[in-house]
Amino acid sequence: GLLKIDHVGIAVADLDEALRFYAENFGLHCVHQETNEEQGVREAMLAVGDGSGPRLQLLAPARPDSAIAKFIDRSGPGLQQLAYTVADVETAADALRARGLRLLYDTPKRGTAGSRINFVHPKDAGGVLVELVEPA
Ligand code: MC0
To answer: I need a labelling partner for 95 at 20 to 30 A (CA). Which of 2, 19, 85, 113 fits?
Structure first.
């Protein structure tokens, strides 16, 4: 099952500009940053409060044909995904598939900080792109 909310992902056009905006206006700071070539994103994780709860993930396109670039082209910047922590991403994905929901990948892909991830198609989850995250 789902253990907790892992992070909320927000699509941004420019990662450095967004990092400045969140620091100056909300006092939120980056605790991890990386480029995920496979996903075509530059991403940053921001801690909220004492950092024990869900994180805010800023997602900027690393290439024009990426999922984030396409999202921004269609919808503009904004909330793009809701991610849940799971103990085992394959078990969680199998349980959802068995209920008839479409998972985007047949086998998990690599996410932030060596996590293993999969996604439920937003059309099968009430218009929300749901990510499953098994932390490293
Ligand atoms: C598209 N749709 C969304 C959506 N993206 N609805 C809600 N939230 C989103 N993020 C809607 C469109 O408005 C459209 O609705 C319909 O879905 C289009 O479906 P499609 O043609 O099948 O798909 P695409 O080409 O628009 O792509 C959507 C899809 C794609 C979710 C399949 O974005 C994808 O593969 N996402 C997974 C990978 C990803 O997001 N990577 C970036 C984060 P209408 O009603 O107009 O038909 S990487 C990440 O998150 C990692 C680093 C991590 O956290 O560890």
So the answer is: 113
Specify the pTM: 0.98
Homologous superfamily (CATH) for 4-134 = 2,3-Dihydroxybiphenyl 1,2-Dioxygenase, domain 1 (3.10.180.10)
**pLDDT in single tens digits along all 136 residues of the chain:** 999 999 999 999 999 999 999 999 999 999 999 999 999 999 999 999 999 999 999 999 999 999 999 999 999 999 999 999 999 999 999 999 999 999 999 999 999 999 999 999 999 999 999 999 999 9
- How do strand 41-47 and strand 2-11 relate by DSSP bridges? unpaired
Ligand 1 proximity of 59 Cβ (cutoff 6 Å): yes
Residue located nearest, by CA, to atom 32 of ligand 1: 121
Categorise residue 31: left if φ over 0, alpha if ψ from -120 to 50, beta otherwise: alpha
